[in-house]
Amino acid sequence: MASERTQVAIIGAGPAGLMLGHLLTQAGIDNVILERQSRDYVEQRIRAGVLEHWVAELLRDSGLGARMDREGLLHHGISLAFEEQRHRLDLTSLSGGKSVMVYGQHEVVKDLIARRLADGAPLVFEAADVALHEIGGPRPRVAWRGGALDCDVIAGCDGFHGISRPSIPAERRQGFDHVYPFAWLGILAESTPASHELIYASHERGFALLSMRSPTISRLYLQCSPDEDLSQWSDRRIWDELSTRLGLALPEGPILQKGVTAMRSYVTAPMRHGRLFLAGDAAHIVPPTGAKGMNLAMADVRVLAAALQAFLRDGSAALLDSYSATCLRRIWKAQRFSAWMTGLLHRYPGHDAFSRRLQLAELDYVTSSTAAATALAENYVGLPFDS
Ligand SMILES: Cc1cc2nc3c(=O)[nH]c(=O)nc-3n(C[C@H](O)[C@H](O)[C@H](O)COP(=O)(O)OP(=O)(O)OC[C@H]3O[C@@H](n4cnc5c(N)ncnc54)[C@H](O)[C@@H]3O)c2cc1C
Hints:
Number of strands: 21
Shape: globular
Low-confidence stretches: none
Distance between the termini: 47 Å
Oligomer: single chain
Radius of gyration: 21 Å
CATH architecture of the domain at 4-75 and 100-177 and 264-348: 3-Layer(bba) Sandwich
Bound molecules: flavin-adenine dinucleotide
Structural class: alpha/beta
Strand order of the largest sheet: 7-6-15-16-17-14-18-21
């Protein structure tokens, strides 16, 4: 089959692949996105929902902020709940004026797809059997059922279960893996959020999170076991348990979605092999406690887009050569923060009274010391890029 040609072949139309495509198209660099699923599927996939301050700004600066600013919820604080009390942390005053935007990942994806189609940039849905070839040399190639592409660079943005990371020879990459001994039972419900800001609760019975996607849709989570049997969780039981752990009465409504999300940390290094560059979940995943997954994906492609411009427009490979190291510094800090938040708030199997007292002392410290609260806020709204 005859190949077509592009400068950058992007595998995956999640936040990472779509944002990379958008930034490259804006910079006048040809790119093609190949996505295994249908448009409908990727636009309906409910996942993350908290955008760091700089991500909201990046979306605005690149012409994608209008619907987010209309429909998203700008948040200036979060609360930590423990021992029957709620403590608000004012993220904005603690971080020198920053905030987070609550706007569903699938809404970001919808905006990016709509913009790409309006720009006339190529995006192939339902691309089956995508395979990467010659990634170690200067002319990599991508083939799928029904097409093939010659390119200068491949961006592997195909998530944790994609084909890009395993395309790198096993002896050329190292994986750092940590599986947590619990999971999250998450619901999406048609109900007014009981609080206008997120509440993270550390309770004797386990962690709970009150979050939202809009003024009428709540997103709520309960710590559960990794092999939790959802059939044991009636709607009644879920609402009661949420209310107990969060310590407040919840407006109830129809549960639209219910699922169990595993908690895992993973980092692969390096994030490059020859002309293949990994970005987003293809290279790393974090437990959702720190709300970092989608934000890290955006951070990778921000770095990658600048590096590809320098390489493909100006012939300078320096930024591409430092891509992996640059991203990994931020990724490990996000892993640190996510693991710390997870440890701060969850109940661990075998947690004894001493461990619980330490956890409560740490929660007390974070909510009473400006120095400790500032560190949480700085990480939560998104670390600066030069650190
Ligand atoms: C159930 C769930 C809940 C989550 N909740 C949160 C949360 O509350 N907060 C948070 O911060 N993060 C959360 N995350 C993590 C966050 O959603 C991810 O970090 C984010 O989606 C990463 O974006 P990405 O573009 O790198 O990967 P993805 O969004 O996974 O996108 C990868 C894309 O590649 C496509 N693809 C895969 N294989 C192929 C192939 N062979 N060929 C072509 N295309 C392929 C996939 O279909 C997908 O569209 C959650 C993740 C999951 C799975």
